[in-house]
Design brief:
Helix content: 55-70%
Number of strands: 0
Shape: globular
Order of helices and strands: HHHHH
Distance between the termini: 36 Å
Number of helices: 5
Structural class: mainly alpha
Strand content: under 5%
């Protein structure tokens, strides 16, 4: 049985996507990247935004480039930035 647990970015991702959708933006690819990042953080036992480190973002960018294209640490960092101050 696969139990889904929302990660530390789940609420911020939902708010961010709702905002972008309200502006008429299509966010399918960014949403998939953000959800993958959130899942990865759960797997890394990250429970709070303050626990996210550069090591997590680098690990994520190494694991997913074939799935989401050229995902870089910089792009991943921007994904985290949205939850802190968008």
């Amino acid at each position: 049985m696969n139990i889904h647990r929302e990660g530390p970015l789940a609420n911020s991702i939902s708010l961010y996507l709702s905002h972008k959708h309200a502006l008429g933006k299509r966010m399918e690819k960014p949403e998939s990247v953000l959800r993958l990042l959130d899942k990865y953080l759960v797997e890394q036992k990250v429970e709070d935004l303050n626990q996210i480190s550069q090591v997590h973002l680098e690990g994520f960018s190494v694991l997913v480039p074939d799935v989401v294209g050229a995902v870089t640490t910089s792009y991943s960092a921007q994904c985290v930035d949205f939850s802190i101050g968008w």
